[in-house]
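Anyone up for a design puzzle?
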């Protein structure tokens, strides 16, 4: 203290000037070291992997507290988010909770969980949210068109989050699809005489127009918002579990709400659809005969074999093209993807036929063309499977009826 009192201002200022640069250098060096460490931690794949696991475990623990369901086996997994995606008990519990008539409000904890999980920006956690999208969209559209009085702000918040994310990803650009010019030769066709005219330009069709940011789900924009959300679901459909696809097929059949003979217009004489069999009499007319008990037996067998219910779920709703288009793309995958389970293909087949009947009654040409094409593709795929099965059965029967040559007796040489 005495030294500081006796020191002159000039000496103190000179000492401060000599210390300050060193202090600033030390602070800058420390800040650079912290920044370097932070950057290195961000670029480190092990750190990113552990951060992703930590996020997934936190979301699973939060869901466990909401559902009152022990999920310790999922949190202990090496990839907890994907384990949650493929967990059938969790899907059943969350589906039952969302199907409650009082769910979907702004204070619904499950809607908050889905919203926060989607905003976590983790790709695996987003897949979990997408797996519940058919159920959420189906419940929302069925309730809003049957009883618009209850508040469904929780469902709308999740749908808006997905829509806003896609709107940001597209950056105001339309989604285009290339339309081939049929007047030009294809890659597999070389014409004998080439046309001397100028080469035509490839035309492009607008699959989706540029998206406009939305802060609320208005009645005029509802179909577009849900349609964009389902289009995002279609982009991830190869990673979706079977029960998620089944939900959409069941809701699509209920949204069509058309149960008439148009559904079985393209079915064969001996093909059963929903417990009905079309039989052809001597005059060539088809009479629909309902077999007693077949419907209930088939449903019980489906429940026992697959653990799911294939009945339509939801209510009849308006189906503008902006909503119907992504639904048909999803149903096309459910019908024709080779790795889909049989119950998914069956549910998609029923839904496509219901949508065809609805489009035929509403006289929507593009919907009629799309659904009719899917029905024809479904029929050809089923006929190909039947042909392969018949060929295998014929080969097995021919091998069984072919007499086998008598074997020569074996001669054993015994040394004396």
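Challenge accepted. My sequence:
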């Amino acid at each position: 203290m005495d030294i500081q009192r006796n020191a002159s201002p000039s000496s103190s200022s000179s000492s401060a000037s000599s210390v300050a640069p060193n202090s600033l250098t030390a602070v800058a060096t420390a800040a650079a070291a912290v920044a370097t460490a932070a950057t290195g931690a961000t670029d480190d794949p092990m750190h990113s992997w552990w951060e992703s696991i930590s996020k997934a475990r936190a979301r699973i623990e939060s869901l466990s507290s909401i559902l009152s369901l022990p999920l310790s086996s999922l949190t202990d997994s090496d990839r907890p988010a994907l384990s949650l995606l493929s967990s059938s008990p969790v899907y059943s519990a969350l589906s039952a909770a969302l199907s409650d008539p009082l769910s979907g409000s702004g204070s619904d904890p499950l809607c908050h969980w889905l919203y926060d999980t989607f905003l976590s920006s983790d790709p695996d956690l987003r897949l979990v949210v997408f797996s519940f999208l058919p159920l959420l969209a189906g419940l929302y559209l069925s309730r809003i068109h049957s009883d618009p009085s209850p508040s469904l702000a929780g469902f709308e918040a999740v749908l808006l989050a997905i829509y806003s994310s896609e709107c940001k990803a597209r950056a105001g650009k339309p989604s285009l699809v290339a339309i081939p010019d049929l007047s030009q030769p294809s890659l597999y066709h070389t014409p004998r005489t080439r046309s001397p005219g100028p080469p035509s330009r490839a035309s492009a069709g607008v699959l989706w127009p540029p998206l406009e940011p939305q802060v609320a789900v208005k009645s005029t924009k509802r179909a577009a918002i849900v349609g964009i959300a389902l289009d995002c679901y279609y982009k991830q459909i190869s990673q979706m579990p079977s029960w998620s696809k089944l939900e959409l097929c069941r809701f699509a059949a209920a949204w069509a709400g058309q149960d008439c003979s148009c559904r079985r217009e393209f079915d064969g004489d001996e093909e059963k659809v929903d417990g009905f069999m079309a039989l052809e009499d001597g005059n060539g007319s088809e009479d629909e005969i309902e077999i007693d008990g077949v419907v209930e037996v088939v449903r019980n067998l489906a429940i026992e074999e697959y653990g799911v219910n294939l009945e339509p779920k939801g209510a009849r709703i308006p189906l503008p093209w902006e909503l119907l288009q992504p639904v048909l793309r999803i149903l096309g995958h459910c019908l024709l993807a080779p790795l889909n389970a049989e119950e998914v293909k069956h549910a998609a087949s029923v839904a496509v036929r219901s949508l065809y009947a609805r489009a035929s009654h509403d006289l929507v040409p593009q919907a009629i063309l799309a659904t009719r094409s899917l029905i024809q593709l479904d029929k050809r795929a089923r006929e190909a499977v039947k042909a392969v099965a018949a060929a295998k059965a014929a080969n097995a029967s021919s091998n069984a009826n072919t007499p086998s040559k008598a074997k020569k007796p074996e001669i054993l040489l015994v040394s004396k």
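A detail worth pointing out: The longest helix spans residues 365-401.
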